[in-house]
Design brief:
alpha+beta, 3 helices, about 25% helix
């Protein structure tokens, strides 16, 4: 009876030890999802590489800008020059009533002689009378000639005067051009001639790529990328560095093997 009991206890202990060992094995073995079809371990999934340095690669290229608007600049000049302006004008005048005959002369001489006779005496009076007659005759002749009392007549008279003639002229001396750069900014410049659809801004250094140094799995390597990294980390999928994301739905990202990037 004692031997049977001992046998049962030994069997139970063996079963207990076997169960614990089986459970430990089941807990520690990889799951079926951690293996691919060929029996190799599954990829590690999404990881990240730390960006250490970004160095832009530049290239000298001509720069152009799109013309938005061009406004002509005009310069106006004014000049003045004198000129003579003449015109014919009708004027009226009255003709003399007499033509200065001896009637006026005689009357003047008589009056002058009488006045001269009143001055002095003797020979002096004779001289004064003679002088008065001569002077009176001359005055009488002039008065008779200038006496106005005849008919009114019209005559044409040419009258001239000087005027300043002003003239102005305008010409295009340049253009104020508003342009838009490739980055969307705008500017204004003055040009001698009217531009076309775009203008040249000379040469400049353009960034054409970036040399990106990154650290992954304890190593630093460098890869050339078309675009500047958007953050300080780069995704690594299945051990490969992703250097370009998908641009449209269904496109595959361009990947560079982390072990094959240039130093």
């Amino acid at each position: 009876m004692k031997s049977n009991t001992t046998t049962i206890l030994v069997a139970a202990g063996a079963l207990l030890v076997g169960g614990v060992a089986t459970a430990a094995f089941m807990n520690n073995r990889p799951s079926s999802g951690d293996f691919v079809a060929n029996g190799q371990p599954a990829p590690r999934g999404l990881e990240y590489a730390d960006v250490v340095k970004v160095a832009p690669i530049t290239q000298r290229e001509p720069q152009y800008a799109q013309v938005v608007n061009s406004a002509a600049i005009r310069e106006t000049t004014t000049s003045s020059s004198p000129r003579e302006v003449c015109r014919d004008v009708v004027v009226q005048e009255r003709l003399p009533e007499r033509d200065g005959n001896v009637g006026g002369t005689v009357a003047g001489a008589v009056i002058g002689g009488l006045l001269g006779n009143q001055v002095g005496g003797g020979n002096g009076r004779k001289l004064a009378t003679a002088a008065g007659a001569v002077g009176g005759g001359l005055i009488g002749n002039r008065v008779d000639r200038n006496h106005v009392g005849g008919r009114v007549v019209d005559r044409t008279e040419r009258q001239c005067h000087t005027e300043n003639a002003n003239s102005s002229s305008s010409r295009v001396v340049g253009y104020d051009v508003t342009y838009r750069n490739a980055d969307g900014t705008t500017g204004t410049m003055r040009m001698d001639s009217k531009p076309g659809e775009r203008i040249s801004l000379g040469d400049a250094d353009n960034v054409v790529a970036y040399d990106v140094t990154y650290r992954y799995d304890g190593f630093e390597k460098t890869v050339r990328m078309n675009d500047k990294p958007a953050s300080d980390r780069l995704p690594v999928v299945d051990g490969q560095l992703v250097t370009q994301t998908a641009s449209t739905a269904g496109d595959q990202g361009v990947r560079v093997d982390a072990g094959s990037t240039r130093q």
